[in-house]
Amino acid sequence: MSRSFDVLVVGGDAHGLLAAIRSARAGSRVLLVEERPELGGSWREIEFTRGFRAAPLASDLGHVEPGLLKELGIKSVEPASDPAVVALADGEPLLLHASASRTAEGLRQFSAKDADRWPAFTSSLHAFTQFLYAVYSGPAPRIDASTLGEYAHLAKLAWRFRGLGKHGSIEFMRALPMSIADLLDDWFENDRLKGALAALACADVCQGPMASGTAFTFMHRHVGAREGVFGQRLRHKEGPQAIIRALEARARALGVTIETGSAVRRLQVKESQVTGATLASGEEIACPRAISSLDPYRSLLELVDPAWLDPEFILSVRNIRFRGVTTKILLALDGLPNLAGVSSLAGTIVAAPSTRFVERAYDAAKYGRASGEPVLEVQIPSVVQPHLAPAGQHVAVVSVQYTPYRLRESGWDSTRDEIGDRALALLERYWPGFGKRVLARKVMAPPDLETELGVREGSGSQGELMLDQILFMRPVPGAARGETPIAGFTLCGPGTHPGPGLLGV
Description:
alpha/beta, globular, Polyamine Oxidase, Chain A, domain 2, 5-stranded parallel beta sheet, FAD/NAD(P)-binding domain
């Protein structure tokens, strides 16, 4: 062994960097290895045409623990944009503001009933997401709890659940397995409102709004959001790379050795205990502990010799659903497109006229085809982060939902540009004049996201977030809480509890 460390961290994304910081703060000598030339993982920015940059998979940084932000010295966190969501369809846009009362006021022209019910809906959802936050703030609850600490944690959750009240607790248990379509039908009547919220619920999952459990995905996506805020939870003036740079600086200050452009070929195991690792260069590193922020499939079936794993465990890992279903279109714009009736374009613009529209878009993906009329989410990050584009110009990131990783009837070489053309044509219908602003584009289908950003099957969540892949079942039973059958080897990425969009919890 040429070098020796207490802990080896595999992966230089935010989760890997945070694991390295926590380990170093506990007194360990830590080596972090990232195979790509720069840190950041799925938050990495890429220059897709000269002078224009974007982070395709960082449309929502999710929730970052305030204590972590304070530790890193990050202060330039912006409040949610206003409006937070712009729902496009034929006619005037529907605006969802950060203020529930202001949203209700604007909703009144579309539906008086929905306007009256909006404040109660946002209050109910916020209570549900706060309870989920309590669940996520500890280890994944185990149904076979056996220690005093585990019982104490379950008792704490029971107390928080009781805090929902009789009506709230019943509604939470009722809503958890529901489809988002049914949940929204319970509350609202306006198609445009329901379509926009359904699109947010189904973002990056290969399910339609009529699928059971999509109400849960909607709740999960808004854990940590302020009451009444939908879409983005966290914005930073300098973008996601500012958080990565702060994490890197903190890690180096604690003595973490960081090496980019270096990959781990295989972890060395002896008697079911990690003893070291072999790098792609051939160098052997001695270490009794290893932590991987890579996806569970790669971590458990590629870094480790399968001989050390039970066949049933291997089968469970192989059956993890990733199913990337979103294409990202990066656009260079010669200026900010005008959208009548909207004062700020810093939020999320959603083109999903109804719940039925979203379901029809999913129907194509269900059979391995790219949707002919996809759901679109548009963000213009350069409104908040002007460094992404030359002065006076802008960058847009268009998420095209329901373009499956595996196409059954065609290949991506012949489909990629068709999807780009189709998405821009649909956007032009709801946002006249947008297309005239486009200078250049880069279409990144799920296989491109896998190749360029290292996310398996184009899924940034490291495993589809549905009810059968959460809590003690994430990534699989037997590896909840980041544990693995290999002593000294743990997982720390979004493929583990509590899932994507929650850093530092």
